[in-house]
Specification:
By secondary structure, the chain is α+β, with helices and mostly antiparallel strands. 15% of the residues lie in helices and 21% in strands. The strands form two sheets. Strands 1-2-9-4-7 form a five-stranded antiparallel β-sheet.
Length: 257
Amino acid sequence: FWYDVSCPPTNAVESLIQRLMPLISQNDIVGAEWWVHTRLSGRNLGHQLHFDTEEETTRRTGHIVHPVISSVCYLVGLGAGATFVLDQTVDGPPAQRGWLARPVPNGFLTFPGDRLHGVMPARPSGAVGAPATQRLTLMIGWWNVDVVANAPRRLLGPCGPLPHCTRQCSWPSTLACTPEEVIRCQQEAYDPKPHDVQEVSPVWEHVPQANVKATPELVVSQNIDQRFFIQGTKKFKEWLLESYTEEPKGGKRRRAC
């Protein structure tokens, strides 16, 4: 969802975005895109490595764009899978370094928005039958370009508007807050404290090529191929541009995940 930071906050998330803006090392932020992830702690495989991009701009212009800053708010899920950020861009060489940021209560992680990142698989939870907990995170992409200005946005699409609360769609009401609550949130004192992240190097391991004549090549249907295995970022970039800009037969556009 897109939030124009020049507008007063109308819900709890927008109020939090205004609260966090002073911690962003940019003074030209014009908007924030936000979304939420939730996964069972200790019972999930993490999230595949990816780049934060703005799909609609890529579809219209053929250029890959990223937020200037990407960030993660750790809301619930102490001890769950760590966020892994690599010093690697779409057009750059393979990363030599990476950083692991483990969830901490009310933690806030920021990193350059054009870097490759993902979530490590979670360690198995404790005893059998232990109550399940969630790894709940709020992601915010901070933009210094108004990416929604040149094209209409659809509900639940990239950088789309927050839906209005209706009988069929009631969840936005859970984010509602009064003007008094917004003011109180902005005025409350807080003392952010830095947390160490673990640097990792090297981050890639060379896998020797197998004897291609020994086994048949795996052929994956294009409808389900999400490029979990690629030969490099060049191939990924080619696929990303193709996925966002290609107009297939039938008029339905394929979209990358």
